[in-house]
Amino acid sequence: MDKLRKEMSKVIAVTNQKGGVGKTMTSVSLSACLAKNEQKVLLVDLDPQGHSSKAFGYRNMNEYPLSMREVIVSVIDNQNIDKNSLILHSDEGVDIIPANISLAGINSILERAMCRETVLKRFLDTIKDDYDYIIIDTNPSLDNLPINALTAADEVIITVQAEPYAVEGMADLLKTIANVQRNLNADLKIEGILITMTDERTNLSKKIPMDIHAAFGNYIRIFNTRIPRCIKAAESIGVGESIFKYDPKGAATRAYESLTKEVFLNVQKNHKRYQDTNIR
Residue 17 CA to chain centroid, in angstroms? Predict the structure, then answer.
């Protein structure tokens, strides 16, 4: 069983250098849906805004003694960190490594660190076998934090909002991913592009997916699932609940259920098939 858990564990980075494109909502919702489907999930908040932490009810940094800043410093200084104090537990079954504003100045520390791109990977390697999935919610930039996320990840999901000029800026992100694949993490795979905040009543939300398919569809997977714009989705993070708890029958919830099946639960079925074959 321990061997199977190790083979099954996946680290997934959800990324885009732009803000407001659904990274946090996707990270939180996928984590919640996986946990709902009896997967052991760790959500790593790598954004100084700490929205993923707040989405599961941890609004006040005084509620937890340790955060991502202490993780990074502990790895750089080659010091142990109390993982029991670090990892928070939500009532939705998702474990969380929180982040807060103290992470904002971490780039200056990382710049001086040896092998600065691998700091997060070195830490996650110590806990990876305890989880089926580790989801990383990245900050909106292309600085050391998302580079660390891509270096630590097995796969990356790119979220793109259905808005004008959505395709612009993707070239820089894809170039960064390619550089990470070439120099730091040859096994990193682009799981796909997820189109978020769509409104099928508008011509724009019909045009943007066509533009994305035309620009990238020949060599990058575009998820069939699209995430609709939904007020309740934004409200859910504000009240400290995932969309699955706050609006269990809503359109965004159904979309994230579909995405989870499209990306993750099929992987679980394949592993179950593999397990059954080897048991025989």
Answer: 13
Question: Cα torsion for 129, 135, 140, 146, to the nearest 10°?
Answer: 20
In the block, residue with structure tokens 């750089």: 76
Residue 158: strand pairing partners: 15, 193
Query: What's the half-sphere exposure (Cβ side, CA atoms, 13 Å) at 135?
Result: 30
Q: Which residues contact 224 (CB under 8 A, 6 or more apart)?
A: 258, 262
Please provide the DSSP assignment of 111-139 as one string: HTSTTGGGHHHHHHTTTGGG-SEEEEEE-
Residue-by-residue DSSP string for 38-103: T--EEEEEE-TT-HHHHHTT---GGG-S--HHHHHHHHHTT----HHHH-EE-TTSEEEE---GGG
Query: Could you give the 3-state DSSP secondary structure of residue 273?
Result: helix
DSSP string, 181-205: HHHT-TT-EEEEEEEEEE-TTSHHH
Crossing angle (nearest 10°) for helices 23-36 and 251-260: 70
Tens-digit pLDDT string for the chain (280 aa): 344 344 568 999 999 988 888 899 999 999 999 999 999 999 999 999 999 999 999 998 888 999 999 999 999 999 999 999 999 999 999 999 999 999 998 989 999 888 999 999 999 999 999 999 999 999 988 889 999 999 999 999 999 987 777 777 788 899 999 999 999 999 999 999 999 988 877 777 678 888 888 989 999 999 999 999 888 888 898 899 999 999 999 999 999 999 999 887 555 554 555 455 555 4
The answer to whether 115 and 141 are in contact (CB under 8 A) is no
* Greatest extent of the chain over all pairs of C-alpha atoms, in Å: 54
